[in-house]
Amino acid sequence: MSSLCHSMVDRRTLLQAGAGLAAAGMFPGAVRAQTPRAEYNLVAAIARSPILGERRPGTEVWSYNGSLPGPEIRVRQGKPVRIAVRNGLSEDTTVHWHGIRLPNNMDGVPGLTQRPIAPGETFAYEFTPPDAGTFWYHSHSNSLQQLGRGLAGPLIVEEAEPYPVDRDIIWMLADWRLTPDGQIAPGFGNAMEAAMSGRVGNTVTVNGAISNGEQVHAGERIRLRLINGALARIMALRFEGHQPVIIAVDGQPCEPHQPADGRVLLGPAMRIDIVLDLQGEPGRRYVVRDDFYEDLAYTVTHLNYNATSPTRAIRDDSFAPLPGNPLQEPDLTRAERHQINLQGGMMGGGMMSGMGGMSDMAHDASWSINGHSMTGDGHANMPPLLTLPRGSNIMLTMHNQTAWWHPMHLHGYSFKLLSRNGVSVPYNQRGDTVLLAPKDAVDVAFVADNPGEWMLHCHITDHQVSGMSSVLQVR
Question: What pTM did the predictor assign?
Answer without folding.
Answer: 0.90
